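Predict structure. Chain length: 416.
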Amino acid sequence: MKNGVVIVGAGHAGVQAAASLREEGYDGPVVLVGDEAELPYHKPPLSKTFIKDAEAKPQPLRGEAFYSGHEIDFRPGTEVRGIDIPGRRLELAAGGTLSFDRLILATGSRPRTLPLPGADLAGVVSLRSVADARLIRELSGKAEDAVIIGGGFIGLEIAATLRAAGRNVTVIEAADRVLGRAVAPVIAAHVHRRLEEIGVRVLTGTTVSRLEGEGGHVAGAVLPSGERIPARLVVIGIGVVPNVELAAAAGLAVGNGIRVDAQMRTSVPEVLAVGDAVNYRHWFTGGDVRLESVQNATDQARLAARTILGHEEAYSAVPWFWSDIGDMKLQMVGLALGGDRHVVAGDAADNKFSVYHFAGDRLIAIESVNRPADHMLGRKMLGAGFSPADSLVTAGPDALKAALAAFQQGTAAAAG
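Prediction complete.
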C-alpha cells in the first residue's frame, strides 16, 4: 500500500491506532492528522487536576520522539475539509490533498451547544480541548461565583474542583437527578449529597432561562423562577455530539455516530472508524451503542489496526469507565441498560460501596464508589461470563474471587 494508512483525529483513539499499526507489524506509511497544534494529550485530567493547578501542563499520550521513532507522520494543526472516497484522498482545509489506501476516522465528539440567550457572552465556556481547559483555569482564577449547566460527569468533576479551590459553585441540571444517563439512582443520590456537603449548590429539575452580562462578560444566570445566580464563569456541560459530518458528507452510513461492523469497518470497507464517534452493535447487550470512554476508544483502535493487518476477530472488549468527583472515585464496568434489579455491597455512609446490576440472574454491570477492588473483579467476572449469586455479592470480595476461580476452572475443564 504505497499511500498507507491515514488517521483523522489525534486523540486517544487516533494515537492508539497509529501505535497499534506499528506494534502489529504494519510497515507502510502511517499519517496521523490532528486539528490541534498540541502534541496529543490525555483528556481526563483537564476537568480535574489541570484546571486547579496554574502550573499544570498537558500530559502527552506519547512523547514527541515516539512519532518520529516509529515513522509516524504526525501532522498537527491540520483540518480535513472532506473525504473523496472514490479518489481515496482527503481534501485539506488549507488546500491540497492527502492520499490514502486505508483510512481510520477517529474524529471524536464535541460539546453539545445550548441555544440560550447570553450564551455568547465572554466567560461562557464548554470543555473539549486543552485550550478550553486553559480558559476555564484562567477565568476561575478571577471568578468567585461559577455556574455549571449540566449534571453529568464533566460538569460535576469541574464543580468539585472549583469548589475545592474556594469558589461558590451552583450546578443546574434539567433532569430530576444528576448523572441521569450514567449511574444508578442510589449512586446519583450519593454524589448529589456529598457535593452539597462540601458546599456545592445542586439544583435538579431546573433550567436556565437566560444568561445576563455586564460589559460583554457573563454576570449571572437567571432561572425560570426569576432567581438570579451570580456567575462570572459559566461552564456548559450538557453532553456531546459525535463528529460525523465528514463521514456523512462522504456517503458513509451514520446514525447516532458512524456505523461500523464488529471489525470497525464502515459501510466502505477501506474506511474504518473508532472511538466516541462510532455506533456499533454491542456484543454484550445485543443493542446499538455509542460509548464515550478512553477504554472504548483505545480498544477499538487496537482492533482496527488488526483488521487492517488482515485479522477478522470481532470487537468484544468489556466496557469500563471512571470519574473522579471530589473525594469519590466512581468506576463503572459493563452496561446497566436492560437491568431489572441490583444488589448493593458496602456502605454509602462510609463513602465506599458498589451496585451490582443484574438482568434476571445475569450480571451485566457494576458501579463502584471508592471500591476499586470490586471494579477490577467485576471486569474479570464480566469478561469470563460469570454471574454470582446475590449471597456471594454481599459476602464480599474474597467469596467472589473464590467463586470466580472455581467457575473458570470448571469452564477450562469443560473446554479441555
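Summary: DSSP finds eleven helices and 26 strands in the chain.
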